[in-house]
Amino acid sequence: MIIGVPKEIKNHEYRVGLTPGAAKEYISHGHQVLIQQNAGADIGFTDEMYQSIGAKILTTADAIFSAADMIIKVKEPQPNECKMLREDQILYTYLHLAPDPVQTDLLVKSGASCLAYETVTDVSGALPLLAPMSEVAGRMSIQAGAYFLEKAHGGSGTLLGGVPGVESGNVLILGGGVVGTNAAKMALGMGANVTILDRSLPRLRQLDDIFSGRLNTVYSTEDAIEKYTATADLLVGAVLIPGAEAPKLITRNHLSMMKKGSVLVDVAIDQGGCFETSRATTHQDPVFMVDGVVHYCVANMPGGVARTSTLALNNATLPFGLAIANKGLKTALLEDPHLLNGLNVHKGYVTYKAVMDALGEQLNLVYRHPEELFKANRRTLAAV
Prior knowledge:
By secondary structure, this protein is of the alpha/beta class.
């Protein structure tokens, strides 16, 4: 199979779909790897490094998309990239389709088979390709929040860890999953007072054990959200419904209860955001103010630490990508139901129910269950 890796073009996005080490794995399995010129140069992965392991460098994205059987990226394709996709091509990347009708429409019209990192599952029901970026984003949420709490950056002038004789800042985390857990680790490390709200009692018990009672675990209700929002210096939105648009847990009315100069960090912004007042921002212009509250809603947070993020992401995506390349898409999907869960769009159909629920009526989409599209005698499976 011919694997193509274009240079990411989203604002301040320096991650790359394959590291030289990951590219070498594909080549060692007999595949050809095409890398766009300078795709990884900004984070220390030079063209010479790729060439030294046998990859070929092409100068333009158009050349990559024209030649490759499978495109491996990091961020969702931008409109001009979507238009370069063709029928029978495979796209393997983050998609976050539910809040993005433009991208969804273009991918459906392309006829390509589009797999979303964020909906691939594992035996426990977790999301192994989303987890590494969730770990990064959770840790960055506290780092970014602490920075924008500084008065010079629009915040209240609060130091999360306080100092002797001065109380620490209050951090409220909505959601106790991977993002929330990693945010809590960082916030506790800074010496903040930390509260996590979640609607799973088993998860709250786990968090209480993990952190040995050093943080508050509270069952999430509207009353609890109002109570803890009013005292929060930093509020991190870390909720996730796999593949679906994030619920709006913090409304405009909640902002009036918050302290002026407090900071909201919406890690769920890729899925539409969990604050009613959120809108996607970039690393170049990361914050805006609503009712005296700082909003940090960068849609590619892990891109801020692009080298660490790329290495962590490749560790997770490589086994699934190799399975597709080695076996062909059809065989790989039918043999692995967890990889099958990653298929969001295939040959003009939407194949992920949460995307259909969010956009089906608006875009007049047609849903097909992925297993229906790949029914075949397993002894005569042909690669697609």
